[in-house]
Amino acid sequence: MTARIELNRTVTPATLVPRLRTDLAAAHFSVPGLTGLWGIEADAALRRNQRVPAQRALATLAVKLSRNEPAATLARLFLLGDAVPRADLDAALPTLGAGGAERLGLVAAVDTLLRPLVDLRPYSFIDAHGAGSWWIVSDLGELALGHPLGESHVLGIGGASRTLSGLMMPRAVERALDIGTGCGIQAMHASRHAEHVVATDISVRALELAALNAELNQIDNIEFRFGSLFEPVAGERFDHIISNPPFVITPRTEGVPSYEYRDGGMVGDALVEAVVRGAANHLTPGGVVQLLGNWEYYGETDAFERLERWLTPGALDAWIIEREVQTPGEYAETWIRDGGTRPGPDFDRLYKAWLNDFEARGVGRVGFGYLLLRLPETASTRGTAPGLRRLERLPDALGHNPAGLGAHLAECLAAHDWQAATDDARLLRTNLTVASDVTEERHYWPGQQDPTLMTLHQGSGFGRSLPLDTALAGLVGACDGELAVGAIIGALAQLLDADEPALTAELLPKVRALLVDGFLK
C-alpha cells in the first residue's frame, strides 16, 4: 500500500506567489496577449511544437521597441525555453524579482543568464460558468528541453486534458475527486462546480506543482493527497469523480521509459479496468465518474464485450464512447513520439518492444475513448427507470471543439432519465420542440418534388446525423411546442393514410432516441 500523506498547499513562501500573480497580471501575460505579440501564424507553429516563428517575431518586436516587453520576456523564458538576462526578468517581474523567481524554483542562474526550470503559461477556457483564465505551471516540455522527457515529468495542458475538461459535467456537487491530478488542471476545473475537491497523484512533484497552480490562481477548495488510484480515499464517497489516468499501454520491458504522467505500471489496459471496477464503491447515489481510457482488442473479440465485463452487473449506469481505434504500430508511434523520442535507433528499439508486447499478448487493436459511469439513485428516488447502458462508436466525436460538451452530456442524461420514467401514454401527451442547433438537409433528383434523402443534423453536442423517413421528418418538423406528440402522430396518420396505432408504435421509440441525443427537448 502507498502511504497516504496530505500536502500543505502553502509549499511556497507565503509572500512570493501573490507577487508572481500580481506581476503576471500587470504584464498582460495572457493567451490573447501572447497571440498579439507574435501573431496567429507563430501561435499555430507553437501548437505544432515549432518555436522559430515566435522567436523571430519577439526579436523583431524588441528591435522595433528598443526594449523587451515584460510579456515577451516571460514568453521567451517559460514558453520557448530561452535563457534571459537577469535584468530583463527583474523588469518583467518587478514585484517578485528574479531572486524571488529563483526562490520559487521557477528559474536557475547560468553564468549571467537565467534559464527556466518550469513551463509557465497562460490558459483560457469557456465553460458553463463563463469565460475563465489561469496560469499553469508544469515541467518543461520537449521543445524547451531539446531532448526526450524524463520519467517523472509533470505534464502541462495538452489535448487530452482539454478534452476531459470539455467533457466535465458542470452540475453543482458537494465533493469531487480528481484521480491522477498531474498539474491540477482537472481539479481546478472541478473546483468551479464542487464545494470541495480532493486531488490525488503518485507523484509528490505533481502534487506540489498542482498546489502551486491552485495557489497562484486563488483556488482554495482543493485538498491534495498522495497515493495510487482510490487508495488515498479509502472508505470515502464522492458526487463527481474525474480522471485522466495514466492509461497508456506501455511494455513492461527493461529499457522502455515509464512516464508517471501517462504509464500506470500495469499490464495492458488493467489500470482503466481498475478505475472502472473500483468506481461504484466511491460514488454517492447519483454520483458520476468521467474518465478517458484505452481498451485492447484480442483476436476477433469486440472490446466492448470486455468493457461490459468490467462493469459490475447492475451496479453502474454506463455511457462509453469509442472515438478512435489504432493498430499496434499506430499506437506505438503515437506514444513513442509523445515521450520525445524521434526516428533513429532509440525509436526503432522502442517500436520493436511495443510490437513484441502486443503480439505476445494477442492484442490486435487498441481503442480510445471516454467513459461516463453513474451509480443509480436508490430505488425509492429512481422509480422504475431502467438503467443506462450505452456503448457506441463515434469517430472524431469531438471534432476540434470539446468545450461545452459537459453541459450536453448532463442534458442527455436528464433526458434519458425523463423518458425512461415516462410511459407511452404520457409521452403522447407531451409537447416537444426541436433543439435550436438542429437542421434538416434534403436532397432531390432534378425535377422531382419529393426528396430522395433527408437527414437531421446536430450542430453542437456530438454533431450527430440521423437519416429521416417521411413520417419521422413530418413529426420532427411539427415539434414546435404547440401540439402534443400524439396529436402530431394522429395528423400524420391521416395525411399518410397510415394505421395510427402502427405509426405510433413505429415513431415513439424514435422520439425517445431523439430526446436522449438532444435533437428534441
Automatic annotation (TrEMBL):
Q: Which Pfam families match?
A: DUF7059 (PF23186), DUF7782 (PF25004), MTS (PF05175)
GO cellular component terms, alphabetically, are:
eRF1 methyltransferase complex
Which residues fall in a coiled-coil region? none
What's in the keyword line of the UniProt record? Methyltransferase, S-adenosyl-L-methionine, Transferase
Tell me the Gene3D superfamilies matching this sequence.
Answer: Vaccinia Virus protein VP39 (3.40.50.150)
Molecular function (GO) terms for this protein are: N-methyltransferase activity; nucleic acid binding; protein methyltransferase activity; S-adenosylmethionine-dependent methyltransferase activity
Which InterPro entries does the record cross-reference, listed alphabetically? DNA_methylase_N6_adenine_CS, DUF7059, DUF7782, Euk-Arch_PrmC-MTase, SAM-dependent_MTases_sf, Small_mtfrase_dom
- Superkingdom of source: Bacteria
User: Start and end of every Methyltransferase small domain?
Assistant: 161-294
Family per record: Belongs to the eukaryotic/archaeal PrmC-related family.
Per its record, how is this protein called by name? Methyltransferase small domain-containing protein
Native species: Cryobacterium flavum
